[in-house]
Amino acid sequence: MLMIAIGAIPQLAFAQQSQDPRVADLVQAANLRVGLGLGSPALALKNPTTGDVRGPAVDLGRALAARIGVEYIAVEYPRPRAVLEGIQTKA
User: Fold this and answer.
1) What percentage of the chain reaches a pLDDT higher than 70?
2) Which of 14, 34, 55, 89 is deepest in the core (most CB within 10 A)?
3) Phi and psi for 28 in degrees, rounded to 5?
């Protein structure tokens, strides 16, 4: 899972084999899982009424997934620190 610390749009048809080793594994997996630590305006906030999640981490994750042609998958955590715990447990 790629963690970015700062509705999915499938684009699998556009995924290509990448010669760039930094993204080759993501292209092969056909998705980008982005850990979102909710509760910080600098990362991501969840609207309690609608359930919509928005913020810089969401925007960056979607943009990166679109750029390399893979599906964006949001993995929500209740707080920013929980993202690090998710990395440690390989969630």
Assistant:
1) 79
2) 34
3) -65, -40
Cα gap 69→63, rounded to integer Å:
10
CA distances from 68 to 33, 39, 48 (A): 13, 28, 31
Q: In Å, what is the CA distance from 16 to each residue of 8, 23, 34? A: 19, 11, 20
pTM here is: 0.71
How far apart CA 35 and CA 50 sit, in angstroms, is 20
pLDDT in tens, 37-54: 999 999 999 999 999 999
Beta carbons of 30 and 15 less than 8 angstroms apart: yes
**For residue 58, with 0-12 CB atoms within 10 Å meaning exposed, 13-18 middle and 19 or more buried, which class applies?**
buried
